[in-house]
Each structure stands twice: as C-alpha cells, then as structure tokens.
Specification:
The protein is mainly α. It has helices spanning about 1-90, 95-100, 110-125, 135-160, 165-180, 185-200. It is rod-shaped, with a radius of gyration of 44 Å.
Length: about 200
C-alpha cells in the first residue's frame, strides 16, 4: 500500500505535466489550424479579386477598342467628306474661279470688289462646321488663304480709281495669281490631300 502511494506521488506530477503539455499542444494546434483556415479563404478571395479585376480591365479595354473602331467606321467617311468639301471650297475661292463666276458687263471696280469679298465670306461660313473633322493646322492655313485673298482684292482695288471698269481689277488679280504671288491655295489643297490619304492608311 505504501508502495502504491509512493508510486502515485511520483507519477501524478508527471501525469499533470503531460496533461498540461498535451492540452497546450492541442490548443495551439487548433489555434494554428483556425488561423490557417481563416487565412486561406482570404488568400483565395484576394487572388479571385485580382483575377476578377484583371478580367474586368481586359473587358473594358476590349470594349473601348470596339467603341473606338466603331467610331472610326462612322467618322472616317465624315472626315473624308470634310476634306473633299474644303478642297472644293478652296478651288471655288481661287481668283480665276471667282472672277469667272462673278464678273458682269458694265460692272465697276467697287461692285466687283464687294461681290468677290461677299462670295468668299459666304462660302467660308457655309463650310465652318467642317473644321471639326480636320487638323487645327490645316484649318489655320485655310483661314489664312481666305484672309490673304480678301486682302489682295482690297489692296488691288484701292490702287485703282473707284469708277474704273471691273475688268481692270480682274486683270490685276489674274496677273497676280498667274505669277504665283497670290494666296497659296494650291499648297493648302496639297496638304489637305496628304492628310486625307493618311486617314486611309
């Protein structure tokens, strides 16, 4: 009996230590597993979120590209038409074309001058909306051609008596144009042709 009590006395502390060790080991293991279980879904969620975000960004890019292509399909004909109209406009306000259309028998210089300038301004205003389809540089060149043409008409008319026949003004304007000293219409037309061709490449 005494031996059994002694054995219990020596065994119980060891069993207690073992029980405590097993408890803590089990508790820490469960805590670790719990943390791991809590972490894995988060990792999966983060990865899923990144994949979803990447997919959405890719779809948005594809959608924007599709919209851009559709816009180009719609606007390209409009832009080409704008270049065509502006080339026609520049040809119509060349001095030789203007004089051919507007000069009349018995017309004096002042009447021809006013008719030429009014026709240029009407043609220009009629084509104002086309500027949104071409480059800013080309539009500035077109405006300069218009201004130079009006200035040349006014300068040439002011050098002649007001009651002179319109044919005298017409002669000066045609000679200036033929000498290549008039507004640079053909250069601007060449630039518009180049821009239109670039749109088709």
């Amino acid at each position: 009996m005494n031996t059994f009590i002694v054995l219990l006395q020596s065994t119980i502390p060891s069993l207690l230590v073992l029980a405590v060790a097993v408890y803590f080991f089990h508790a820490s293991n469960e805590q670790f597993l719990k943390r791991w279980k809590d972490t894995v879904p988060l990792l999966k969620d983060d990865r899923t979120e990144r994949l979803l975000k990447s997919f959405i960004e890719r779809e948005e890019k594809l959608q924007l590209l599709s919209i851009k292509k559709e816009n180009q399909r719609i606007t390209l004909p409009l832009r080409l038409q704008a270049y065509e109209r502006l080339v026609l406009f520049l040809e119509r306000i060349s001095l030789s074309r203007l004089l051919l259309r507007l000069i009349e028998p018995g017309m004096n210089i002042q009447k021809l001058q006013n008719s030429l300038i009014q026709n240029i301004r009407d043609e220009f205003e009629h084509n104002l909306s086309q500027q949104i389809y071409i480059s800013e540089t080309s539009w500035e060149w077109i405006k300069k051609v218009v201004e130079d043409t009006i200035q040349l008409i006014n300068t040439s008319a002011s050098a002649l008596p007001v009651d002179s026949p319109a044919s005298e003004l017409a002669t000066i304007l045609l000679e200036t144009e033929n000498a290549g000293k008039g507004p640079q219409i053909h250069k601007v037309i060449a630039q518009l042709h180049a821009e239109a061709q670039f749109l088709l490449t």
